[in-house]
Write a structure and sequence with these properties.
InterPro entries: GH. The chain is mostly helical and 152 residues long. It contains seven helices and five strands.
Length: 152
């Protein structure tokens, strides 16, 4: 009995599947050239104004906001945003920010530090990624998650 509980407790956490796209809604709204930056989660008003695109805050798709530490990914916020935007029929234009504090401290200790107290979305340095291979892997994982085919 104890062994069974231990095995269950040690099982790796599973990541929920990525959101999928509605092809009909995508085609209908693709002809629209109006959108918001950002719609601030108020998609109903943005849609009423005629928008079909949204560009979320840059920090939402920032490397360190998703890969909290090397190899530890948390897509919960981006999944929630993508699901909500797609449910409202919006196309999404994201900016992937290449900043993760744990990466930046590897080679950018000489850059000026920007301190924004209490705001974890902003990392202190804004240099190019120190570990380009790890960043490349992150971008591939992010794009694969949201490419619309429902497969990570």
């Amino acid at each position: 009995m104890t062994l069974s509980l231990l095995l269950v407790a040690c099982a790796p956490a599973t990541t929920p599947p990525p959101p999928t796209t509605n092809a009909d809604e995508f085609e209908r709204t693709f002809k629209c050239h109006f959108g918001f930056m950002p719609a601030m989660w108020d998609f109903e008003d943005a849609k009423e104004a005629g928008g079909a695109y949204d560009r979320p805050f840059f920090e939402l798709f920032q490397w360190g906001m998703i890969e909290k530490e090397p190899g530890v990914f948390d897509f919960s916020e981006t999944d929630r945003y993508i699901s909500t935007a797609q449910a409202e029929g919006f196309h999404i234009l994201v900016n992937i920010q290449p900043f993760a504090h744990w990466d930046q401290i590897e080679c950018h200790r000489d850059l000026p530090a920007v301190e924004i107290p209490g705001d974890p979305k902003f990392h202190y340095t804004k240099g190019k990624p120190c570990d380009k291979e790890r960043y490349k892997d992150f971008v591939i994982k992010l794009v694969e998650r949201y490419d619309g085919d429902g497969i990570d």
